[in-house]
Amino acid sequence: MKKKWTDESVSLDAVSSDIARLGKEALQRKVLASAAAAEALEEAIATESLVRKLSMFAKLSSTSKIGNPLPAIDRFFWIYDEVVKSNTLVESIAGNRNSDTSNNAQVPTEQSKLVSLWVEVALATDLGISNARVGTWTKGHGMKDTVELATHLQSEMQMWFLQFVEKALDAGFRVFGECAADSGKLPIDCGSIAAVLSQLKRVNKWLD
Prior knowledge:
Elements: H1 17-63, H2 69-99, H3 109-125, H4 141-181, H5 188-197, H6 200-207
Helix pairs in contact: 1-2, 1-3, 1-4, 2-4, 4-5
């Protein structure tokens, strides 16, 4: 059975006044609770996206080969661009959390629509509750740590890439010398070097 999120259009005219009052109060509590849940879910999704990029970078760091740098360079640029996007997103969410603390009393119409959308996503994905207890969620508090992670990850990726390119160029020029010494032989590595050198403009643009 498809799960459906109850909206505020529920008619309580056919029930007693006491039940109607309790029902309306319950709907108000639901709106406030769902707003908090939607904000927590938004933070969780943004953080999950960043953690995935961290995992990708960790794998790239462990599998990249100096002797065949082109695939690693291409992969790095893709991951780095995604990290920049994630960094922008988490900073935006953190900024919104700091600016809307005065609006806790009620949920505006547009925000209410977004709340419903986020909750529908949660219901559709059938999110489970983890038994692991690592602390309590406080609005916006965890995003500070996520922003810190994004900033440090971006910085570490920059340092890693500079070191990787430097080592790759050193290794490439050595192999290039070997190829030049034996002009009758053109190993695959020599072609790889040409491909890597063709990426220098891209690397220089990134450095700028």
